[in-house]
Amino acid sequence: MSTEGYPVKEYRQPVKRYCQTLDLKADPELIAQYRKAHSQPQMWREIMEGIRQVGILEMEIYILDSRLFMIVETPLDFDWDTAMSQLATLPRQAEWEAYTSRFQAVLAGQTSDQKWQLMERMFYLYEG
């Protein structure tokens, strides 16, 4: 775990934030392989390009045991359903989903949008 902090991009415009969760199979070896698949040298270039192509500005995934938590930041005019439909058609996306599904506690053949469950914000630290 990093105790040094993380860089934060500033977009000089308001952004929308989507938070999602997904569970991995509770198998330490599979979790290690999933982590490796998402490492800088192993991540598929086409997947990274597709994420940007549909308008996502930033994406982070956090892990605790077998639970994943993803934060996605987008421009205000971003339409989630349209972007996810477009993402599913991009090069290697279906292949990536099939590959990562072997690590995830999901049904076979699900798209990214079906696997990752959108969460509702129920609290934030109010200013003032």
Description:
The protein is of the alpha+beta class. The protein has one domain: Alpha-Beta Plaits, CATH 3.30.70. The chain contains five helices and four strands; from the N terminus they run E-H-H-E-E-H-H-H-E. The chain has helices spanning 28-37, 45-53, 80-88, 93-101, 112-115; strands spanning 15-23, 58-64, 67-75, 117-118. Strands 2-3-1-4 form a four-stranded antiparallel β-sheet. Strand 2 (58-64) and strand 3 (67-75) form a beta hairpin.
In short:
32% of the residues lie in helices and 21% in strands. It contains five helices and four strands; from the N terminus they run βααββαααβ.
Topology:
Elements: E1 15-23, H1 28-37, H2 45-53, E2 58-64, E3 67-75, H3 80-88, H4 93-101, H5 112-115, E4 117-118
Antiparallel strand pairs: 1-3, 1-4, 2-3
Please describe the structure with a list of short key phrases separated by commas or semicolons.
128 residues, alpha+beta, Alpha-Beta Plaits, four-stranded antiparallel beta sheet, 32% helix
Strand order in space, largest sheet: 2-3-1-4
CATH topology: Alpha-Beta Plaits
Q: In percent, how much strand structure appears in the residues?
A: 15-25%
Main β-sheet description: 4 strands, antiparallel
Number of domains: 1
